[in-house]
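dumping this here before i forget
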Amino acid sequence: MTSLSETLFGGDYPPAGFYFKVSFAATAGMSDTSFLEVSGLTAEMNVEEVVEGGENRYTHRLPVAVRHPNLVLKRGIAPITYPLVIWCKAVLEADLALPVLAQPLVVQLLSETGMPLRAWTLANAYPVKWEVTGFHAQKNEVAIETIELAYNYSMRLL
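structure:
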């Protein structure tokens, strides 16, 4: 007998969050999509508070715009020849001598067979922060780089 969640959502509900892929338009099919963590798929409605004269019980909260915080990608430090590293260097190390090339990207949550369960597209993404975690002589850990991308908006595809 199948459960209600299996009937409504298929056998992949709730989906596991450890199998995912990030695809960049600029990588042109080259593999540079393995990350330890992806976070920041967020949409928040900004509101403006308006006080109505004579009304002391509440203020009106009116929607203004949707805000999208940065997308945060974490992975082991990649070689300098990787497409994402080349793009980050071009944007963050060129002192704005070169134009900032924004590009679309897609984040996919995958099933155990590698099929997309959920997908989001992010418009006009570009790197705004590139950080390397600290090194510690008494720890045996992978050196991690964190890349933050600003983007205009996101849309859920699946």
